[in-house]
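fold-stage: in
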Amino acid sequence: MSTVDTTGASEVGAVVAERTVHLTRDALVRYAGASGDFNPIHYRDDVAAAVGLPGVLAHGMLTMGLAVQPVAEWLGDRGWVREYGVRFTRPVVVDAEGGADVTVVATIGLLDDDGRPERIDLTVTAAGVTVLGKAQVWVVFR
């Protein structure tokens, strides 16, 4: 599910985009193939358990990429992402049968001198906990 604000909201705290992405183990295997990251903690329960993890984990870079996508869609051809950074605070555990839902809410964090959004703050959660901290997207408008 995804919503994107195309009204040009420009006040700090305004939500500009929201999305929930359902991840499955199949998606993790496809991402492993695309990224070249075949660490078995991303697809094998036995390996994840052996190293003390709560289950198979989504790739951090997959989670980070999913989180910025609603902002890129909101920007469209009006601008671009200048900088993007996050802290990985909790893993996204992807259940073998139920998968995992990652929810992203993008809000305006800072306006530039012309009153346009300059920084978009992301709240990224899975299973009711924040999985990316200090997730900030610095944008530039044309």
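fold-stage: in (second)
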Amino acid sequence: MNKNNPIDLDNLNVDELRAITENAQQLIAKKQHQRLYDAYMQFEKIAEDSNSTIEEILKAGEKLEKKRSIKYRNTDNHQETWTGRGRKPTWLVDALAAGRDLEDFAV
């Protein structure tokens, strides 16, 4: 079978369709495994090139993600932050009601 000549599934019996399905599922699993293996090997090379371990990179990524997700910070109390998602925190609602601009709190 090639891409220009697809199989006419209507002419196949149930057993033939099941065989195609099983083969397709096995091929999908194989390709997914290969894709993950290739990604892992690239990741391992990046770790080696940066003289780090995969664990160190993952740990650093977690810290960066936390910092990146913060969009707004209370200028009066730096412990109070907001990602810009969900309900606005009370400190921000109060500041906006007092005439401050949202951009005043942007990180």
